[in-house]
DNA sequence: CGACTTCTTGATGTAACTCAATCCCGGTGG
DNA sequence: CCACCGGGATTGAGTTACATCAAGAAGTCG
């Protein structure tokens, strides 16, 4: 990670989409800004937790390894988002996950001790961070259930819907650079299976391919695949 | 739920295993205590969030439905534990999960508005609750990865190890009443598959059956199944 | 004792993983 | 400028883990 020489406005620091104005003054005092290249690993599973990060620019994938060649992408942190907060724990000081830049990005690092100190004197921040964790837990458990019971097709459909919702559309395609491999890791399936599923969805006129990117053409139909149709027997 | 007439000591209120002494005075003021019967639903997915609960006695399963006849058990709240806190959210006021008593139990209910008020004036509590959520998120994401990549045998092995760790041994068996159906929902597999897997584990001398309960006889071997053996190729 | 769950087992189906071969395309160097 | 190379994209075939279905056995409760 190269330390950035440019100055970035502190206004870009958010926890998820909730702005945290009480956080801003602190950041000015104690931040380090890094430039990271596409594919660069910012920290990895097992590393000692040294602090938390905010995204100034670019998208960061948060993922968890399995064996030597498999992983599961848990979340994508976008501009303004926080990451590395999964290192906060009452039990361990080791990151349970890795963070990797999906594209060239700029991130802001806050020392852990400093972050804790700030939290301890700033009730509103601690409260909001708690709610943020609560939201992430809900999301995580929803995905967990889907992983257990939903088919790959349903999971791909849902992932695409979420991605389009989150990143929007640009040049008639979902505005995120995400390799098929990453998409596969995101839905928890293999490259080939996801590939075939995408083809299927194209044939069924639910989505269309725009270069390497994807555009949803039939939201309703896609949503249909995410439903628990077996229950209507 | 029947309102309990007995008086319970407030000392039994914890968040997970972390005692929260600052919470105790509040509980005296504003608690309702309920007796719930085995199998009774305390609240269910989709209900409006009215508050959070603490377990005085018994085990409570926290689960999420899929379709009409499938579910995934996310967690089991034990004596002293909190549940219903998944209803806390910045976005919605609807429980994303259900809570059902695994056995006759006694729970303590705290009104949501009151809980929020307490959190807002009690920094230490908010901070601890935040850490508690962080821990739960870690655990949830670990399970998620396992669900995506681990075999049923590995997941059953891990579940049994965790259960024995958490509930201990009594009468030469893991000290929890958990039907095979619930165990299946806990590992995210079908009844039959889990049944066969248990048999396998007995044949391999990893576990032994004690009535309907299970005892681990070979921890090491069981742990072996939870490893990512494919990586050693 | 009979009805009713829960357990047990076998047979069968299938979604998804694995492995392998070929294809395609952009980049590189001669 | 074109031939060559390498890595991702694409497709096929085989295998496997797991779900599903079905049906009998064994508890268990009124």
Which characteristics define this entry?
homodimer; alpha+beta; Jelly Rolls; Arc Repressor Mutant, subunit A; 2 domains; 5-stranded antiparallel β-sheet; globular; DNA-binding
Number of helices of chain A: 7
Distance between the termini of chain A: 55 Å
- What is the assembly state of the chains in this entry? homodimer
CATH level-two architecture of the largest domain in chain A? Sandwich
Major sheet size, sense and barrel closure of chain A:
5 strands, antiparallel
Mean pLDDT of chain A: 86
- Using the alpha-carbon principal axes, give the shape of chain A: globular
Summarize the structure in short.
The structure is a homodimer of 233-residue chains. Chain A has 233 residues and is of the alpha+beta class.
SSE blueprint:
Two copies of one chain form a homodimer.
Chain A: E1 2-3, E2 14-15, E3 18-19, H1 24-30, E4 31-36, E5 41-43, E6 51-57, E7 60-66, E8 70-77, E9 82-83, E10 98-101, E11 105-111, H2 112-121, H3 123-149, H4 152-167, E12 169-170, E13 173-174, H5 180-187, H6 191-203, E14 207-210, E15 213-216, H7 219-225
Antiparallel strand pairs in A: 1-4, 2-3, 4-11, 5-10, 6-9, 6-11, 7-8, 7-10, 12-13, 14-15
Helix pairs in contact in A: 2-3, 4-5, 4-6, 4-7, 5-6
Chain A binds a DNA duplex (30 and 30 nucleotides) through helix 6.
